[in-house]
Design a protein that fits this description.
2 copies of one chain form a homodimer. In chain A, helix 12 links the parallel strand 9 and strand 10. In chain A, 46% of the residues lie in helices and 15% in strands. The first copy, chain A, has 13 helices and 12 strands. Chain A has 3 domains: 44 residues, lambda repressor-like DNA-binding domains (434 Repressor (Amino-terminal Domain), Orthogonal Bundle), CATH 1.10.260; 133 residues, Rossmann fold, CATH 3.40.50.2300; 128 residues, Response regulator (Rossmann fold, 3-Layer(aba) Sandwich), CATH 3.40.50. Chain A has a 6-stranded parallel β-sheet, sandwiched between helices. In chain A, strands 7-6-8-9-10-12 form a 6-stranded mixed β-sheet, with helices on both faces. With 331 residues, chain A is α/β, with parallel strands linked by helices. Chains A and B meet through helix 4, helix 5, strand 2, helix 6 and helix 11 of A and helix 4, helix 5, strand 2, helix 6 and helix 11 of B. Chain B binds a DNA duplex (16 and 16 nucleotides) through helix 2 and helix 4.
Chain lengths: 331, 331
DNA sequence: TTGTAGGCGTTATCAT
DNA sequence: ATGATAACGCCTACAA
């Protein structure tokens, strides 16, 4: 048996109709007599015909494919968002092309180029920061773009975010109830989202009439090891509670503190920032801000479909609600 | 400024050559005079021309895209593999289309259809089991396929796996050094990989002249909660050590045991099966079998490139080495 | 309701 | 070394 691709012409021949009719049947065009439709369907089944999406893409200029760029799929944080994106994408019959950027500007640029070249119908971009050049690349593209969990200061691009500012404020306020010195441990302040958190932290202090002390803020922490190493520094500063924006860091801190004999939450309170599964596995389980990550992805993708299908969108700068999940690392 | 796509013809016109020449330059064909090449390059830069990969795909029958199917990207296990796949894919200039199947046979079938329709150059399939129909679909495809961490009993499809059998045997043997009753906690026995583990477990018992006791085996456990719930059952069976193939379950068990006042590893030893970051974050950190997940993905993708480029492959059934990482949940 | 024919933007095969 | 000119497989007016 010769393995050559069967095309729409083959189906047409077998069904005894023209290829246009086959195309109509494939695309659910109503203008086809039921009897003809059946003949075509039979021929399709008989030949095991499968439309070539590439040819279709070339002719129709739509690929039903969206590109997704994220720092790394290995992070539970981005994986959760990606899952939300993927579910909604499948719901709308889009395929997802995934690319890891490692937060590297060059890779980001290269991936975007590649996506545009492949004629994706839309792009979801995630990155802890948005460089000027990448931003221009995205704005200049004729393809719809949505930023997920990524802040565009100029608000020119559509985006879906979580209210980091408010989350930080609330978390800090809660710890301030029982503590005088509340530390804040977060990632790089070059990332807009962390700046927002920082502002939230300061506002909470202000509300509680506590002076801001720079030495209680620890920037640039992302790993479990970072968290472990921070423990002693916090104790030296007489800090007795901390908001930790990255979960891995929070767990590292928790474990290191306990190894030093510090009781959590009795002697030290912790609020983690992402509510990843990690926070439930630690002992004691960590009180945590629940960022609706899956929803963030799902909503981003939904917004993108609207943009792609040219549906009306009233607000293209969305903010999702978060919540504080009380576990056992706070009093 | 009118936003119409600029094609290879536009470049040809501006450069004053034929489109064939532009195509040659684009594809690095040597048969182009240096001076001509430069003219073309200038025109490309001037017009900001970007080749249309869809048109190229249609004409060349190659899309430089591979499809990846996995149960869920949300699992750190599959995320690590996916990362390995993606890195090697980018290295070879392929894009990765990702699809979550949720281990659902229907979704798997649908996704494979969609991939084939999109003319992917190759497919990496991951699933805890391989149903007969999906297997046929894969075998019948004219597209190269590699199974990653998925066992095909008939060994007809190319695959890359970890030696679950040996890993289980070694882990069990280690626990048998200090314990009489060693439990085994694993996922569904309908999955080939778990059957392999089971056999390894039994062989280790045999080697140590310990009778196999069915009630020491706990099947179908995947979640943290499963692990927690198992703690009392294990203690009731007087089990004092267990190999736990899923890390989440291991952490759950660990935490629940400690809440009951059981000291790990003094009174109970645990070996986890996947060495995900979780095992390092728990307290005490879990001794764990290190499955080379990233490598599994990388090697799978490398094998796939060979298949796609029709390079010679001597062995298409690869087994990767694992190792036991000693931490603090074993004596 | 159905068929014809001209793209879509490349690659690739022949000529020249 | 370069240029015409068919494919590639489908969509979509436009005709019939």
């Amino acid at each position: 048996m010769v393995e050559s691709t069967t095309t729409i012409y083959d189906v047409a021949r077998v069904a005894g109709v023209s290829m246009a009719t086959v195309s109509r049947v494939e695309n659910g065009n109503a203008n086809v007599k039921e009897k003809t439709r059946q003949k075509v369907l039979d021929a399709i089944a008989e030949l095991d015909y499968r439309p070539n999406a590439i040819a279709r893409g070339l002719a129709s200029k739509r690929t039903t494919t969206v590109g997704v760029i994220l720092p790394t799929i290995t992070s539970p944080y981005f994986a959760a968002i990606a899952r939300g994106i993927d579910d909604v994408a499948s719901m709308y019959n889009y395929n997802v092309v995934l690319a890891n950027s490692d937060n590297d500007e060059e890779k980001e640029a290269k991936v975007i180029e590649s996506f545009l070249s492949k004629q994706v119908d839309g792009i979801v971009f995630m990155g802890s920061s948005l460089s000027e050049s990448v931003r221009n690349q995205l704005v200049g593209a004729r393809t719809p773009v949505v930023l997920a969990g990524t802040i565009d200061g100029d608000k020119e691009l559509a985006s879906v975010n979580i209210d980091y500012h408010l989350a930080a404020l609330e978390s800090t306020a809660k710890l301030l109830e029982h503590n005088k010195k509340v530390g804040y441990i977060l990632g790089s302040l070059r990332d807009a989202e962390n700046v927002e958190r920082m502002v939230g932290y300061q506002e909470a202090l202000e509300d509680a009439k506590v002076d801001f002390d720079e030495s209680l803020v620890f920037e640039g922490n992302y790993s479990y090891e970072n968290g472990r190493n921070l423990a002693q520094q916090l104790l030296d500063e007489k800090i007795s509670a901390a908001v930790v924006s990255v979960d891995d860091v929070a767990v590292g801190l928790l474990n290191a503190l306990q190894e030093k004999g510090i009781k959590v939450p009795e002697q030290f309170e912790i609020i983690a920032g992402s509510n990843s599964p990690l926070t439930q596995y630690s002992y004691p389980a960590l009180t945590s801000v629940n960022q609706p990550l899956y929803d963030l992805g799902a909503v981003s993708m939904r917004l993108l479909t609207k943009l792609m299908l040219k549906e009306e969108v009233t607000d293209s700068q969305l903010i999702l609600a978060h919540e504080l999940i009380q576990r056992h690392s706070t009093k």
